[in-house]
Structures are given as structure tokens and as C-alpha cells.
């Protein structure tokens, strides 16, 4: 059993302890890479790892919990302890983390009366149910019980959202009531309004800051705030930002290695820190979030590289070695090691094996749900991905009008399987004209959830519910009678796709492209998506995430742990781009910044 205390400094078994931590989020890495990534943290001379626990992934449907595979945080924590590292856990209801809906489960959106992250009984009830499942799993890993967890976070950057101290106290009390013994903490920006609103300093809950530079100024703010409340706690930055996230159609955000090293040195001379992130990883599937803007929200890309010291594919960068050097300069007695490096492989190109037309196979690959009027995704039990709405109308043999109302986020219209138009949020609701020469006309509306806002005032906005909410009008009338097809792109859906020979490839409908790939040596690789339009790609039933010709990334990373000797890749393409081959390369592909 280890005794961790927060007094005038951090103490571990009575000895002063400096926290040298790096963020490594288990849910953004393939489990086969957990050990080597933790080794690389230790090779810096660091002693602690930090991670969030995303509620959304662990309770994907209300009352249905999972911690399998990539979500097996207990296996991850066992590995942390085996390697002699300490752990900081952030199990707050909201995590931000550039994660869809800030890590809150989208099924919360089916409760229109609910208010999130405040003292609202219904929200707190749902948090309590999650905590009833979660904390019995976390408690044995507390340092007070002989485990690696030093402390846990109450809420995340709450001072940038609200000032409801009753809510904060209830979250902290939930944790204590369920057996949390280690110190609790909060983390916020260091301006006074954030600290006053986001902390529980008056309840003796430890206060930390989040920033990525100007360590002296930021820690001076922390010190002054603590002093006003009679505290002489150690200074810590819980999120020392060493890079940044990226959004579609914008240039990659970069930070110079020596600039980071200089700022890290300054911070470590003052106090303790957690590098955010040591390794970013990947927004596999549809977990990417979205940046809120007044008119046009900006979805974040599949890569969560973050320009971190260890990049998305596990390679230590120039930043890594610069930080390692600084740590040695400050703490020459700390043991450091050579990091493990990974090597990707270029496998070449593979021919098309089969195709399928989404508009033909939708009733085969997923349940057909009927409703009089279009339902939001969450109302039919779908969190992420795409949803297809279909209705057959009588042809009036004149130019007809069509529009979708209150629809999020990206809407594609098809008339008798021919593409009519694509609309984004700022265009949705504009009227479209169409005509056909068949007695009955098949109307298909494909809606893509591009990612929910993960930070700021739009967290609780109606726009975070996805799909069609306001209805679909034809000739100024709300059309009654819609079939719904939830396209989740999970293994169950993908294995049902009936592929035809490549010669039957459809011309305009959203399409599935199948590739059968035999590999003799398994290594990381990258899918070159530069010739594709927009969609997502799976390998062996696992959704790697989205690609988009908008850039800046034009690749999808494929960890070797997802590969086997015989592989099936499925590309889902929505932009009428004929995909004839799948090319696996040994490095990521980016769009020229001049084109962005």
C-alpha cells in the first residue's frame, strides 16, 4: 500500500514526490501498443500516466456497460502497475478531449428536459448509474489499496462552462460515497473566473491548472488563488498542451520541438506536470468531436496525433527527444532509456473484389424501422455514423419541391437512386427541385453525424441531436411514412453486406467497396485515401474512421494489431468516386497546405 498525500508538496510514503506524467488514453490506441507506449513514457524518466474514462464508450446504450478489448481499462491499469508507474484517472461525466459530445453518451439527448453538467436531478441520476458500475472497478487500483492511482478528477474544466458548485459537490460526494479514498482534484484555466467557478477549494479539493506555455504567469495565478483561500498546495499543470488537435479543411497545427522543451523546463522548475498528450492516438470509428462556432461548426479529423511527442503511429518525434534531454538536465539521477520505435510497411495496391449499392442493400444490412415522421438518430438507438431515411411517393409529373428541416449535420438527397444534392448545416432547409418519369418515386435522404460539439456553450444545444428532427417536406407538405435505416458501421452490419462482382459497381449511389488483402508479414500501415471522396473504412469488421478529400489528412492509420493473414477492407464512399484499388503505404498522406 502506498500513501500519497497533498500538503505543501506531493508526498509518496512520506517522501517529496514530483509528478512527471504524460497522457496516454487507452481508448485511442490498440491494446497491442499499450505496453510499448508506457515503456516510452518511462524512457523519458516519467513516473506517472494520466487518462480519461469516456462515459460514452463504456455505456453506449442506457444501462448497457462494456469494458472489452480497447476499452478494458482494468487490463490497462494492471499493465501500468506491472511497469512500476503511477496513475492519474479522470472519470468525470464530461471529458472534452475532442471527443464526440465531450464523452457524454448521446442517449442523454433523448431526455429533452435534461440539463447537462449542472445540478439537475435527471442528469445526476444517470451519472450515478454509471458510477455504480464504474467505481467498483476503479477502487482496487487506488494507491490506498496498493494500486497505482494517486488521485482522481471531479469535473473537467468546469470553470469554462458553468458555476454550479452544488453540482460539483454532488459529483465529488458520489465519488466518496462509492469508496474513493485518494485525493480529488479539479483542473481549469488559470484566469480568476474559471478558478472561482470550477474549483472546490473551499472543500479542500486540490486545484490544478491547464495551459501549455507561460508557466510562471499561470502558476503565479494558481498560487495567488490558493493563497486567498489559505492554501499552500504544490503547483501542477494537469494539461500541459504540447500540441493541438486538427479540423477538416484546415492546415495541421504544429509546435516547434525546442519551443516545447523550453516551456517544459520552465514548468518543471516550478512544479509538477502532465504532458497533454504524450501520445494522441486515433479517433477510431465516429468518436471525433466538433468545435462550436456561431454558424458553422468545425468537425475534428480522425487522426488524434495532436503533434504530440509520440505521434499517432507510435513513433517518438523530435519533441520526444527534446523533452527527454530537458528532463535529464533537470533530474540527472532519473533513469532514462531508449524508446521503442515502430516501423510501418507499404504493402502496395490491391484490386477491387466486390461492390454494393447502399440504397439497394440497406434493408438487408440493418433493421428497417418505420415511423410516420423522421426520427432523430438517438431516438432509434443510434449514437454515431449515418442514418438513411426513405419514402416512396406518387409522381405528380411536374417539377416537385423537397426540403429537410432541422437536420444535422450533412444531408444527401437521392431521387430514384440518382444524386440530387448535398447540403451542409448552413444550407439545410433550402428548397430543392426534382422531377422523375416513374409512377412511384423513391426518396432517399442520407444524413451523416459529423461529430457533436465537445466544448463550450453548444454542449446542450438542440443541434447536438443528429438526423432529421423537423421533418421532410415535399411540395410544402410534411411527408408522412418513413423507413429508417441506422447505419452504425459495426461488425454486425458490415458482415451482412451482399457484395456483387466489381462490374456491377453503381454509378451515383453511396457504395461499399470490398477488398480482400492477404498479408504475410504483419506491420502497421496506412491507407492512402488521397484519390477518394468522403466516407469511412473498416478492416476485419473494425471501423478505422472517416476520410475526406477536404484534408488535411488523406490517410487512415491501420495498427498491426487489427491485421491478420487474410483481411477484408470495406470502403464506404458517398461522393460518387469510383474506387478501383486499395493502396497501403508506409507513411501518412497529407494534403498540400496550399490547397487548404
TrEMBL record:
Q: In this protein, which residues make up the domain named Beta-galactosidase 1-like first all-beta?
A: 374-488
- Entry protein name: Beta-galactosidase
Q: Which PROSITE patterns match?
A: GLYCOSYL_HYDROL_F35
* Superkingdom of source: Bacteria
UniProt catalytic activity: Hydrolysis of terminal non-reducing beta-D-galactose residues in beta-D-galactosides
* Native organism: Streptococcus oricebi
The top EC class, named as a word, is: hydrolase
Q: What is its EC number?
A: 3.2.1.23
Q: Tell me which residues make up the Beta-galactosidase galactose-binding domain.
A: 510-566
What protein family does this chain belong to?
A: Belongs to the glycosyl hydrolase 35 family.
Q: Keywords for this entry?
A: Glycosidase, Hydrolase
Q: Where is the Glycoside hydrolase 35 catalytic domain?
A: 10-329
